[in-house]
Amino acid sequence: MSSTDISINKDVHHAHEEHDHHHDQNFFEKYIFSQDHKVIGKQFLFMGIFWAFIGGFLSILFRLQLGWPDATFTFLEPILGGWVANGKIDPEFYLAMVTMHGTIMVFFVLTAGLSGTFSNFLIPLQIGARDMASGFMNMLSFWFFFLASIVMFISLFLETGPAGGGWTIYPPLSALPQAIKGSAGGMTMWLVSMALFIVSQLLGGVNYITTVINLRTKGMSMTKLPLTIWAFFLTAILGLLSFPVLFSAALLLIFDRSFGTSFYLSDIYIGGEALAHTGGSPILFQHLFWFLGHPEVYIVILPTFGIVSEVIATNARKPIFGYRAMIGSLLGISLLSFVVWAHHMFVTGMNPFLGSVFMFLTLIIAVPSAVKVFNWLATLWRGNIRFTTAMLFAVAFVSLFISGGLTGIILGNSSLDIQLHDTYFVIAHFHLVMGAAAFFGMFTGVYHWFPKMFGRMLDEKLGAVHFWMTFVSVYLVFMPMHYLGIAGFPRRYYSWSTFEAFNVFADMNSFISIAAIMGFSAQFIFLFNFIYSIFRGRRASANPWHSNTLEWTTPPLPGHGNWPGEIPAVYRWPYDYSKPGSVEDYIPQTVPFSQTQSSNLPNERDQE
Amino acid sequence: MTSNSVDKEKSTSGVHPLKFALWLIIISIIMMFGAFTSAYIVRRAEGNWFEFELPGIMLLNTVIIIASSVTMQLAYNAAKKNNISMLKIMLFSTMALGIAFLAGQWSGWSELVQNSVYFGGATANPSGSFLYVLTGVHGFHLITGLIYIAAVISAALNYKVHSKNILRIQLCTIYWHFLGGLWLYLYIFLRINH
What we know:
Shape of chain A: globular
Distance between the termini of chain A: 44 Å
Number of domains of chain B: 1
Structural class of chain B: mainly alpha
CATH topology of chain A: Cytochrome C Oxidase, Chain A
CATH superfamily of chain B: Cytochrome c oxidase, subunit III, four-helix bundle
Number of helices of chain B: 5
CATH architecture of chain A: Up-down Bundle
Oligomer: heterodimer
Number of domains of chain A: 1
Strand order of the largest sheet of chain A: 1-2
Order of helices and strands of chain B: HHHHH
CATH class of chain A: Mainly Alpha
CATH topology of chain B: Four Helix Bundle (Hemerythrin (Met), subunit A)
Helix content of chain A: 55-70%
Radius of gyration of chain A: 25 Å
Number of helices of chain A: 18
């Protein structure tokens, strides 16, 4: 609100603009309550990494239980305390761990940690803006996320444990505190935390959209934007439209839990006694939840589409294949993501005709997704590929996206879903296509933009070790799960060894758990590399990857305001790599056509 | 302030970034009420739905909030013409009408309770609970609007709202019209679905 007064004093601060970044800010202004988009981006990154380790650690704990269901885990007592009795993990705590693993990974790591980091860091740098449209709102966005994190973190230490109804928190289980321990205080804190989280996402999203629309530099038309910006922009729009709906759903659930309403509850008996709730519909919650929930998986994956497109083009030294088709497919996927939510609900007893409509719409998503995959492969085709660590992760992303995406076509069929619903086939599908793939996209971004974030390089040898261990273990973990799922092995079960049909999978489950432990261990190599390189890494040049986009025209460690002098103007698209007739194999966006007469195409002549 | 170095006037779309951001916030609020009202329709179609009369005072409230939109617009026009005394009168009238609307909604709730339509508890039906949620969440947003108007009034008293510093009251006017429009939508929606 103070901005109206600022705009009046425009002439005054214009004169001072050059000196602005010389002002000494104190420690708190600079690093804690910063309004600088780069610092906020790094804050999101650090929080994301912190949460990723907690979420990963939880998955290792429940993989121990699944891999060796009859073993005793007395060595876990020092960490888990009362949750391990006589060496056995408490079944309700197992459910809580599964729930928290999902919640943490989907929302705190792959939404806040991914969009929060890269949208904040890259949008102003790549469109040529000094900062976000509202630095204050941007700061609030991080601090709402921080509050949400604190509430969620504290819930891990409650006596009744954190939320345990699954990350989708379906009522009636989640609505009745007396049902399981995981629906008691932990669920209340989950809902509070998510409400804060949604506020944070909306504040961030409003800023990203406004900045992309309003603050682009001279010459930066929408069709000269790097694909990263297109992806972040559409991600923010998806969030803006879908998170309020989750907020509505959560609000009604809060009323059901604590105020005695019956939006989702009807005809329920607990311990033989009928509850007073009548007239509610639990399916209503699923509709509201998945109206967010499905766009949410695209909120997770779209930013990595952009990051990977950028890194593949840069490191294949080739223009991205089908730039406009890439934008078109992003738009298509965003649009379709809002009309497919009921494919999560095929077995809720919905009208089969409605089911086939949603099935049809779901399968159409394969078309824009395939356009993207073919364009990435065509970009790689006969390129001068440099296998930097970022590039390794980007190529592996394409691989994971294909293997995970193909099973999506299987799951999207409403008749096949009857067999596969809530089995490990679903687990394998979404972990490959949005879990592991989004993580790989995030690693791609970290390895690629680390030099611009911290002014130093990550170690490439450690990066390669990290990559291969992660890549191999991801496939070793999730490929066998398809097999389990086809056999009907159900997800979320604490103990399966008493079922005759699933006993034969004991070795396979142990194998998956060993691979998971290997994959998790590899992340400590990354953690070491990350922290060590922030302080001791090799110093980076301004443009270490010989890339075209605007952020590489800033100094190695851009100060406040990003460019010391004027903001550069943009003359060309961001993918002029290996252009025939050009001296260098890359032409940055800031180079006018008049300086590159030897390489200009016939249609570019009139812009010289 | 650190954000000073951002030149907010140079916008590629020709719209002030904050105004643009406000529209985005309005879209997210629309999505929230879209979720509530579509849930209402879906739930009502399933049956077991208790029908009751809407409180009569809601019609009066609708007239009040439309009147407050008119005074808000007059305040904005006065600010553009630098008519400061008119601006203050109109802002205070908007504030008063807004509070009157909230009080009217409150009495609507008491009327519902008197007719045994409860928000929660053993005898509550979702049809009643939905009405409380729709009016309650709208009321909450109206309170944020009133806080915004209070901020504009305090600026107006310090002579900071005039034709050369119009953005604050302009955004406030947009938000207030939106809240009025939102109530109109909810009222018509409830009338049709009752």
